[in-house]
Design brief:
- The protein is an alpha/beta fold and about 425 residues long.
- It is built from 13 helices and 17 strands.
- It has a 7-stranded mixed beta sheet. Strands 5-6-7-9 form a 4-stranded parallel beta sheet.
- Helix 2 runs parallel beside helix 3, helix 4 runs parallel beside helix 5 and helix 11 crosses helix 12.
- The radius of gyration is 21 Å and the shape is globular.
- About 55% of the residues are buried.
């Protein structure tokens, strides 16, 4: 259906510019944006128009890294560091997803809450369990959201309840799941080695083969924690850097998302840039689990593609506005405590990362530029009261820091209304 929305439009132009307009027209034709206009062009005059009043209209946001299977224990265990946190919280919870009834209830909550957020696209970790992962994909498909969902692969260094018996069996199960996922329209599989310490060389090699055979994207974790990096160094002593291990097996490509990258050095940064790898910056999780602050300014300056991740349950919320605010705050702390010359991130930059930057993983997504997929979120921020008038740009900036005082009124994905 072709239609028009009218409201206060905030479009993501690039890392330095937000196009904020009072009472503008946003046009959808064939599931694509036809552009933003101050006056509706005559050629669109016959289209149905929804007047959103003074509500904000922004591009749909992309969550580049979230663990759906961990949503139930968000807000717990934030006083632990990564490896202890995995053993105390993440692994025991994920083992519960062997019970399809539990998975059904847990994924219902996750998908319902994701639908009510400003997120329209996401890269999602499930668990090693094929039936539960397919159930998650079914729920996302029904909700109308676009997602890349990963059945997690791991065959070492994890509890027996989650450890696949051997690389050959794990790869066979992975391929069966990939084939069974082929009927979904809006949800696609993504190859998901948990991280290098949990995947043998044999498993990584087979996953690389499946990636190439089925032309699939990849997601995993990279250089999140110093203890993790030391463990990887002991497991792969000949690798120049952590990322080189993924690269060795064909898992470091232009359709790869690597979460965190907190301690990525110069060699790893250049490898990410040259391969076109996306860095999923997860500032709240990195603070909660005391991993550190990623060098996002350096990534942006180097030409690395960067988006944002909520990283629930290391992060406490699916709200990417919170991730934007945390990204700014953490960049200030990094500049202060490291003494590096990196300038703190700006509002324009974090909005870009949540919209167009992360959206690039899904193609032409995250902007209202003509030809981009029509992903849009209508937001009522009237509860964020002010004694003086605010510009549309100021309202967006305040929304980033005060998102809990706003309400999602409607959400569209590729032109289809999925909420509101």
């Amino acid at each position: 259906m072709d239609f028009v929305l009218r409201g206060c439009v905030c479009d993501c132009i690039d890392k330095e510019r937000i196009d904020a307009r009072e009472r503008a027209y946003l046009v959808c034709v064939g599931g694509k944006s036809a552009g933003v206009f101050d006056t509706l062009p005559e050629r669109f005059a016959g289209l149905p128009c929804t007047d959103c009043g003074g509500s904000l209209i922004i591009p749909g946001l992309t969550d580049l890294h979230v663990h759906a299977s961990q949503y139930a224990f968000r807000g717990l265990g934030g006083d632990l560091q990564l490896l202890d946190w995995l053993n105390a919280n993440a692994f025991p919870e994920e083992a519960r997803f062997a019970d399809l009834g539990y998975a059904d209830a847990a994924y219902d909550i996750f998908v319902q809450d994701l639908l009510r957020s400003a997120t329209t696209r996401a890269c999602i970790f499930a668990t090693v369990h094929t039936p539960a992962t397919l159930r998650l994909m079914e729920k996302l498909e029904k909700a109308g959201l676009r997602a890349l969902v990963g059945r997690v692969s791991m065959d070492r260094g994890c509890p027996p309840s989650l450890c696949e018996s051997d690389a050959e069996t794990a790869a066979r199960d992975e391929e069966e799941w990939i084939i069974r996922s082929s009927d979904f329209k809006n949800v696609r599989p993504i190859i998901t080695p948990r991280f290098v310490p949990a995947c043998s060389d044999a498993l990584m090699r087979r996953l690389g083969g499946l990636r190439e055979k089925y032309s699939l994207p990849v997601q995993s974790h990279l250089s999140e924690n110093l203890g993790e990096i030391e463990l990887v160094r002991s497991l792969a002593p000949d690798a120049e850097c952590y990322g080189a291990v993924y690269d060795k097996y064909g898992l470091f490509t232009g359709s790869t998302v690597m979460a965190h990258c907190v301690h990525s050095g110069a060699a790893e940064t250049e490898l990410m840039r040259s391969r076109g790898v996306f860095a999923a910056h997860c500032p709240e999780c990195n603070a909660n689990i005391a991993s550190g602050v990623a060098p996002v300014r350096r990534f942006l300056n180097a030409g690395v593609r960067v988006g944002l991740g909520s990283d629930v349950a290391g992060g406490s919320t699916l709200c990417l506005f919170t991730a934007m605010a945390m990204a700014v705050r953490c960049s200030k702390l990094r500049a202060h405590f490291t003494g590096e010359a990196d300038a703190p991130l700006k509002t324009e930059e974090v909005f870009y990362m949540a919209a167009r930057g992360g959206g690039e993983m899904f193609g032409k997504v995250g902007s209202f530029e003509a030809g981009f997929d029509f992903d849009a979120v209508v937001i009522d921020d009237a509860a964020l009261r002010s004694p003086r008038p605010l510009t549309v740009r100021e309202r967006l900036e305040r929304l980033i820091y005060l998102a809990d005082g706003a309400r999602i009124k409607a959400k569209y994905v590729a032109g289809a209304k999925v909420f509101g």
